[in-house]
């Protein structure tokens, strides 16, 4: 009885969810149509004297199905297609549906690339504090800081790569050039990598100096393809490749604590930078090249400033924007 009910349930679900079941639905519909026509032909053959079906298999011997034979063949073939459709449907159902995967695993959700920005907005709106571990920090400086700066006594921790390490910058440049990043064709070298990081440092310093916000900034000696943005309730893991989905982990999932601990150890092993020494100004655009030089000298990056050029650094700071804006 249970087998009959399960089979009936599968048949009903097969036709109630055509978009989900796809190919099995098409095969089942064809099979149902052929079976119905075959049954009708079978009845007509018996009642109205339809054509008989005789199969010869040698030595003058024949296998006679009578006048309902053709209809019977069609009917059996149609039923076979229906059984085949149900079999394929069962194989599809044996695998988790990717569209409902996030509903089945509490606290763990795969985010489609087109929905990442929306998820970040939700994460920012509920943030009491923010933690970031990544490489350049362009989204952090272009979107996170301006969004959260209006909140009183807000705290942010930032861990990015060390721009004073030329080997690290060169290695990260090679990685960036090998992927389909948001830059869409821009080629990186050690200097352009270092410039991006220095800009983030200066933008952080500007927000510390001119907004009521506390930023702990750390420089790491390694880069990580995976970036982590987190508030106290959830975190989003992303990669540089803009075609790739993101992973959202909420605080009720056990992996949240593990990744949070990873960020903590990364900060402990990195170099802490004091970003409180930048000159006060109404806007970043109001800064001057000598302000950049003085600040970078104060954090031990005067050589890097000379290499990149204070004017170039200032121009890049004035051009900061959210890299994911259309």
What features would you describe in this structure?
- With 326 residues, this protein is α+β, with helices and mostly antiparallel strands.
- The protein folds into two domains: 2-95; 103-318, 2-Layer Sandwich (Endonuclease, Chain A), CATH 3.30.870.10.
- Helices cover 52% and strands 15% of the residues.
- The chain contains 13 helices and ten strands.
- Strands 3-9-8-7-4-5-6-10 form an eight-stranded mixed β-sheet, with helices on both faces. A two-stranded antiparallel sheet has the order 1-2.
- Strand 4, helix 7 (138-148) and strand 5 form a beta-alpha-beta unit.
- Helix 8 (166-177) packs across helix 9 and helix 9 (190-210) crosses helix 13.
Mean pLDDT: 83
> Strand pairing plus helix content: what structural class?
alpha+beta
Rg (C-alpha, Å): 33 Å
Between the first and last Cα atoms, what is the distance in angstroms?
58 Å
CATH superfamily of the largest domain: Endonuclease Chain A
CATH topology of the largest domain: Endonuclease, Chain A
**Helicity, in percent?**
40-55%
CATH architecture of the largest domain: 2-Layer Sandwich
Number of strands: 10
Specify the number of helices. Answer: 13
The domain tally reads 2
What string gives the helices and strands in order? Answer: HHHEEHHEHEHEHHEEEEHEHHH
Q: Main sheet, how many strands, which sense, barrel? A: 8 strands, mixed
Give the CATH level 1 class of the largest domain: Alpha Beta
Q: Order of strands side by side in the largest beta sheet? A: 3-9-8-7-4-5-6-10
Regions with pLDDT < 50 over 5+ consecutive residues?
A: 99-104
């Amino acid at each position: 009885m249970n087998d009959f009910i399960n089979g009936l349930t599968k048949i009903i679900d097969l036709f109630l969810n055509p978009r989900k079941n796809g190919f099995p639905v098409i095969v089942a519909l064809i099979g149902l149509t052929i079976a119905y026509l075959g049954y009708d032909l079978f009845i007509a053959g018996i009642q109205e004297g339809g054509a008989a079906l005789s199969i010869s298999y040698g030595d003058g011997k024949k296998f006679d199905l009578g006048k309902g034979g053709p209809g019977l063949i069609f009917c059996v073939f149609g039923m076979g297609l229906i059984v085949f459709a149900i079999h394929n449907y069962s194989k599809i159902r044996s695998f988790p549906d990717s569209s409902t995967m996030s509903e089945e695993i509490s606290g763990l959700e795969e985010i489609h690339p087109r929905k990442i920005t929306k998820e970040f907005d939700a994460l920012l709106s509920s943030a009491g504090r923010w933690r970031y571990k990544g490489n350049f920090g362009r989204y952090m400086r272009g979107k996170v800081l301006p969004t959260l700066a209006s909140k009183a006594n807000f705290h942010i921790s930032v861990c990015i790569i060390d721009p004073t390490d030329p080997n690290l910058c060169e290695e990260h440049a090679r990685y960036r050039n090998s992927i389909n990043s948001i830059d869409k064709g821009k080629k990186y070298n050690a200097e352009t990598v270092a410039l991006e990081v220095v800009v983030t440092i200066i933008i952080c310093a500007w927000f510390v100096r001119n907004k009521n916000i506390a930023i702990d900034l750390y420089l790491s000696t390694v880069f990580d393809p995976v970036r982590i943005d987190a508030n106290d309730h959830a975190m989003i893991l992303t990669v540089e490749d803009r075609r790739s989905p993101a992973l959202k982990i909420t605080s009720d999932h056990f992996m949240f604590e593990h990744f949070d601990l990873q960020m903590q150890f990364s900060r402990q092993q990195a170099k802490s930078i004091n970003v409180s020494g930048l000159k006060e100004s109404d806007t970043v655009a109001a800064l001057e090249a000598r302000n950049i030089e003085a600040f970078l000298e104060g954090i031990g990056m005067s050589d890097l400033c000379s290499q990149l050029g204070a004017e170039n650094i200032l121009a890049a700071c004035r051009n900061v924007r959210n890299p994911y804006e259309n």
